[in-house]
Amino acid sequence: MTTLRRLWSLGTGRFGILIVALVLVTAVVSLFWTPFDPAAVDARARWSDPSWPHVLGTDNSGRDIASLLMAGARTTVVVAVGAGAVASLLGIVLAALGSLTARWIRESVAVLVDILIAFPVLIIAMMISAVWGGSLAVVIWSVGIGFGVNIARVTRPELRRVLRSDFVLAGRASGLSTGQNLTRHLLPNVAPVFIVQLSWGMAVAVLAEAGLSYLGFGAPVTQPSWGVLLSDLQAYISVHPLTVVWPGLAITLTVLGLNLLGDALREAADPTLGERTPAARTHVPGVVA
């Protein structure tokens, strides 16, 4: 509860919580209700301006843009959570193997991570989709693998630093196994770094899904997605620019909210930052004569 109170006291934390909560609530509500059927085509209502009952207007097929955005939030949440889960599992496993095992295993893992991290996430996604075809699973696994490797590279040195701490040595002396030390002492102390990397990974997952869907490698055209909606509407941007603003704004706010929430979580969870007051963190010592 202390961490949550500290998180809410930060302006970035409040903004991130509100944006992420809004996306989650929208995704859940869209399972049961949307203003209109997202797939319903109404030729008579094509290119309606924002007004009642189409509060955000309609597209070139007469589909309600607000309903499409609500349904697309489901895709965004699935991709962000799925990619975050894959990245977390892969990152923790690689970081643990690169820190807690024999020297030859540690060095082999370090070389493997350096090789994999050279491949951009979008390139990995395109390579996988070229073999298995474009789908949300491709986005989830490609982003999860790409950022899992990034999490491992950043978390591994932190694990090795904490591994040399006195409380870890005391845990070993008291009979704790490597797994118990990992869960009780090591992971909680690298959590701030891990949280920031995970939030970045989830934000990139949202961008990757939108970008890959825009290019035809992500969500199928029959599935509501912010990237698919952007792809459908970009041809009309010079005639109906406002219709492109809504999915672009949704993607931008979601990515910004995830990034700011990750930064705030790091500050709230880091005991070295939490012990200091805001005034102490911004204090600049004066020159002593």
UniProtKB/TrEMBL annotation:
<feature type="transmembrane region" description="Helical">
    <location>
        <begin position="138"/>
        <end position="155"/>
    </location>
</feature>
<keyword id="KW-1133">Transmembrane helix</keyword>
<feature type="transmembrane region" description="Helical">
    <location>
        <begin position="193"/>
        <end position="217"/>
    </location>
</feature>
<feature type="transmembrane region" description="Helical">
    <location>
        <begin position="237"/>
        <end position="261"/>
    </location>
</feature>
<feature type="transmembrane region" description="Helical">
    <location>
        <begin position="109"/>
        <end position="132"/>
    </location>
</feature>
<protein>
    <submittedName>
        <fullName>ABC transporter permease</fullName>
    </submittedName>
</protein>
<keyword id="KW-0472">Membrane</keyword>
<dbReference type="Pfam" id="PF00528">
    <property type="entry name" value="BPD_transp_1"/>
</dbReference>
<dbReference type="InterPro" id="IPR050366">
    <property type="entry name" value="BP-dependent_transpt_permease"/>
</dbReference>
<comment type="similarity">
    <text>Belongs to the binding-protein-dependent transport system permease family.</text>
</comment>
<feature type="transmembrane region" description="Helical">
    <location>
        <begin position="77"/>
        <end position="97"/>
    </location>
</feature>
<keyword id="KW-0813">Transport</keyword>
<feature type="domain" description="ABC transmembrane type-1">
    <location>
        <begin position="73"/>
        <end position="262"/>
    </location>
</feature>
<dbReference type="InterPro" id="IPR035906">
    <property type="entry name" value="MetI-like_sf"/>
</dbReference>
<dbReference type="GO" id="GO:0005886">
    <property type="term" value="C:plasma membrane"/>
</dbReference>
<dbReference type="InterPro" id="IPR000515">
    <property type="entry name" value="MetI-like"/>
</dbReference>
<keyword id="KW-1003">Cell membrane</keyword>
<feature type="transmembrane region" description="Helical">
    <location>
        <begin position="12"/>
        <end position="33"/>
    </location>
</feature>
<dbReference type="GO" id="GO:0055085">
    <property type="term" value="P:transmembrane transport"/>
</dbReference>
<keyword id="KW-0812">Transmembrane</keyword>
